[in-house]
């Protein structure tokens, strides 16, 4: 196997409740952080930082953040949602209104307040989950998606009455000259900022789903009636899932509009965004924080791979068919994972650890 837990004993409650109790897990996490914070920026500096850190790494990290939010709601709490793009739009436009109304407010606080506003909107649209579930809840959240996009597209107050209806991110710095928003911000600053946010929020989500709240979500997901009998309150539990999920999605939308694109309109958060994030958690694995990053990497990097096929393959697969091929591949993989392995790439990683013998110590 890659590695196993045999021979690693816990001698305290702290070690037993650690997020990564296995030594090899901690080594892999540290190695991944070293690559993310060191190797990738170094490689980008040699080959073009503006391309690698901008159009490639930033969407991957922001999508991962949105996937964590949806996975909390759908994978852990069992509440199907198709309104991810709408909640991302709430975070983006709330950030714009706060940044323009309070120009002296630190951008970190602006992002936090915008995410809290998105959480409040998520709670508002989460009330139908108390009466309906499954397909009907999916339709209700889909209605919230269309309503929110229509609202931001039709009401000029959200864009400060600009004729174009497009919001542009004003330049804001975290401290000193560390500008993370605005078209003139350094791609390194943007990358390190979004990476740090994604790492901290993933760590927070991992802690959350391991605790009392996460166990209550999974109890509601598996059998809500039995969960209510043993004392879990469906009202608070479901609304908390909607709030935290919308918080993550709103933060992802704010980062997408202000850090990644620096200029965006409401239609950029249409239903395609919601489906993309849903595909990520299906392919990556429902109920898995690691799966959010795996699914996001797959959805983000596969189109780039298809667009940069080797010349020989390029003659076999015309370039103008790459979009159709992407859709075929995505649809096929979704069906495959739903039938063969519903837990996605995260489960395949666990199977690989159990079957392969590439890391034979410690025993």
Q: What labels would you give this structure?
A:
single chain, 363 residues, mainly alpha, two-stranded antiparallel ribbon, globular, disordered C terminus
Question: Which helices and strands appear, and what pairs or packs with what?
Answer:
Blueprint: H1 13-16, H2 23-47, H3 49-76, H4 84-101, H5 107-126, H6 135-154, E1 167-168, H7 187-210, H8 212-222, H9 224-229, H10 234-261, E2 263-264, H11 271-284, H12 289-307, H13 311-316, H14 322-339, H15 344-355
Antiparallel strand pairs: 1-2
Fold and architecture overview:
By secondary structure, the chain is mainly α. The protein has a domain at 24-268. The protein has helices at residues 13-16, 23-47, 49-76, 84-101, 107-126, 135-154, 187-210, 212-222, 224-229, 234-261, 271-284, 289-307, 311-316, 322-339, 344-355; strands spanning 167-168, 263-264. A two-stranded antiparallel sheet has the order 1-2. Helix 4 runs parallel beside helix 6, helix 12 runs antiparallel to helix 14 (322-339) and helix 12 (289-307) crosses helix 15 (344-355). The chain is globular.
Rounded average pLDDT: 84
Order of helices and strands: HHHHHHEHHHHEHHHHH
Structural class assignment:
mainly alpha
Assembly classification: single chain
Terminal residue distance:
11 Å
Level of helix content?
55-70%
- Biggest sheet strand line-up: 1-2
| Biggest sheet overview | 2 strands, antiparallel
State which percent range the strand residues make up.
Answer: under 5%
Coarse morphology: globular
């Amino acid at each position: 196997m890659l590695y196993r837990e045999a021979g690693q004993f816990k001698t305290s409650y702290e070690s037993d409740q650690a997020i990564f109790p296995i030594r090899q897990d901690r080594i892999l996490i540290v190695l991944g952080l070293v690559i993310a914070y060191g190797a990738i920026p170094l490689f980008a500096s040699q080959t073009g930082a503006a391309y690698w850190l901008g159009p490639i790494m930033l969407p991957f990290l922001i999508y991962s953040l949105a996937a964590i939010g949806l996975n909390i709601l759908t994978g852990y709490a069992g509440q199907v949602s198709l309104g991810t793009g709408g909640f991302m739009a709430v975070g983006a436009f709330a950030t714009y209104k706060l940044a323009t109304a309070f120009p002296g407010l630190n951008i970190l606080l602006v992002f936090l307040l915008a995410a809290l506003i998105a959480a409040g909107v998520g709670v508002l649209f989460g009330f139908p989950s108390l009466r309906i579930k499954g397909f009907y809840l999916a339709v209700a959240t889909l209605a919230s998606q269309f309503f929110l996009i229509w609202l931001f597209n039709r009401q000029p107050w959200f864009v400060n009455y600009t004729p174009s209806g497009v919001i542009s991110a004003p330049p804001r710095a975290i401290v000193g000259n560390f500008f993370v928003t605005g078209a003139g911000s350094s791609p390194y600053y943007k990358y390190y900022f979004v990476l740090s946010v994604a790492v901290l929020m993933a760590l927070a989500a991992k802690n959350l789903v391991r605790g009392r709240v996460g166990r209550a979500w999974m109890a509601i997901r598996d059998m809500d009636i039995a969960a209510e009998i043993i004392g879990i309150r469906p009202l608070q539990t479901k609304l908390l899932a909607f709030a935290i999920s919308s918080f993550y999605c709103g933060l992802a939308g704010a980062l997408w509009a202000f850090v990644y694109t620096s200029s965006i309109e409401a239609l950029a958060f249409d239903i395609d965004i919601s489906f993309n994030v849903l595909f990520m958690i299906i392919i990556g694995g429902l109920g898995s924080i690691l799966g959010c990053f795996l699914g996001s990497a797959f959805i983000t990097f596969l189109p780039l791979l298809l667009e940069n096929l080797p010349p020989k393959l390029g003659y076999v697969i015309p370039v103008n068919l790459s979009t159709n091929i992407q859709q075929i591949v995505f649809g096929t993989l979704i069906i495959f994972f739903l039938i063969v392995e519903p837990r996605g790439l995260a489960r395949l990683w666990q199977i690989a650890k159990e079957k392969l013998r590439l890391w034979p110590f410690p025993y």
